[in-house]
Prior knowledge:
single chain; alpha+beta; minor pseudopilin epsh fold; 5-stranded antiparallel beta sheet; 9 strands; 30% strand
Amino acid sequence: MGLAGRFFSGRSHPGSCNDRGFTLIELIVIMVILGSVLMVAIPRIPSSEAFSFGSEVRRTATLLRYIDDVSGYTKDYYRLSFYLDDELITVERSEDGENFTPPGDSKLQGIEFGGNTELVDIVLQEHGTVDDGSVSLVFNPSFGAVPFKLHLRDGAGEDILTLTYNPYSGRVKVIEGYV
């Protein structure tokens, strides 16, 4: 039997060196190596809570950008209400800036944060920091809303991200930390 026959036959011949399996020491060495690799790799894998928090922040930033854009395109007014105690953001639309109703656009549905994201506060130039109750901002088709900073914290209380809105450029920035 040739060399290939020894490797692929699946049978060992009596007296050959192929009739033994892995020794206990070889198995322990393999387990130690695998354990070491996992100890290094697992902490680098983001948790589902961190992923969920990042997703909620991106979704909020996208909503703010979209409202700024659609307000200018449609010439409608949009009221964005932040319910800080209920962890909720709602959106309403108005053609005249006075009578607001829920928008028909599915992209303009509000955001209800789960347990992985907390609305900390919102900072407005004319009102300062508001950390409880509710705040409503109207996006005007001509110039957007007033500048503001929205602070969001992950459910574990470890990370805080700041969303800043600039009405002059319509940009929304996400900044790490409480800014």
